[in-house]
């Protein structure tokens, strides 16, 4: 079973009153449990305020703040409900920082869902403009995670 298939199951169960779901297929067994009543540890939609703005452009190969008339931005959004992490482990540095030049297919962050680490990749080339979620925060399906500036030369 692939991560997208598991994500689809989670999305389908999200809006139901089902508290326990089990699936067994091809020797793989999955059990999903959620509390029957909301708890204080339930996931919540977090603020969409950016953590910070562009840093200085010192040391970057591409300008971190291209002229506004030549720039458009796109958000990378969460494909699943889970916990947002900027790095592969607590000891490792973040995948990207504000001002990082990214390429299509490059890993930007991880969303942990049911003990599965789902790498979230960039859908296009660009420069990280803002990181919209704090490390370790719960996110919902469709939550904007990272804003990427697309410029004519890379987009």
Task: Tell me what you see in this structure.
- This protein has 155 residues and is mainly beta.
- The chain has one helix and ten strands, in the order H-E-E-E-E-E-E-E-E-E-E.
- 8% of the residues lie in helices and 34% in strands.
- This protein is a component of the acetyl coenzyme A carboxylase complex; first, biotin carboxylase catalyzes the carboxylation of the carrier protein and then the transcarboxylase transfers the carboxyl group to form malonyl-CoA.
- This is Biotin carboxyl carrier protein of acetyl-CoA carboxylase.
- GO terms for molecular function: acetyl-CoA carboxylase activity.
- One of its GO terms (cellular component) is acetyl-CoA carboxylase complex.
How would you summarize this macromolecular structure in one to three sentences?
With 155 residues, the protein is mainly beta. It has one helix spanning 3-14; strands at 20-25, 28-33, 72-77, 82-85, 101-102, 107-113, 116-121, 126-131, 138-139, 144-150. The strands form 3 sheets. Strands 3-10-8-5 form a 4-stranded antiparallel sheet, with no helix packed on it.
Uncertain segments are 36-69
How much strand?
A: 25-35%
State the shape.
elongated
- Derived structural class: mainly beta
Mean pLDDT: 76
At the fourth level of CATH, the homologous superfamily of the largest domain is RNA polymerase II/Efflux pump adaptor protein, barrel-sandwich hybrid domain
CATH C-level class of the largest domain is Mainly Beta
CATH architecture of the largest domain: Beta Barrel
Radius of gyration: 18 Å
Q: Note the run of SSEs as H and E.
A: HEEEEEEEEEE
User: What is the number of strand segments?
Assistant: 10
Give the total of domains: 2
The percentage helix is: under 10%
């Amino acid at each position: 079973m692939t991560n997208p298939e598991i994500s689809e199951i989670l999305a389908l169960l999200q809006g139901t009153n089902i508290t326990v779901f089990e699936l067994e297929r091809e020797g793989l067994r999955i059990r999903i449990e959620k509390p029957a009543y909301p708890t204080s540890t339930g996931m919540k939609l977090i603020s969409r305020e950016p953590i910070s703005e562009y840093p200085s452009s010192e040391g970057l190969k591409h300008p971190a703040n291209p002229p506004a008339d030549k720039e458009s931005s796109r958000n990378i959004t969460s494909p699943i409900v889970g916990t947002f992490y900027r790095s592969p482990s607590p000891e490792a540095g973040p995948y990207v920082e504000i001002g990082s030049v990214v390429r299509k297919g490059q890993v930007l962050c991880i969303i942990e869902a049911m003990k599965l680490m789902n790498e979230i990749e960039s859908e296009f080339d660009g420069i990280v403009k803002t990181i919209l979620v704090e490390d370790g925060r719960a996110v919902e399906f469709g939550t904007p995670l990272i804003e990427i500036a697309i410029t004519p030369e890379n987009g």
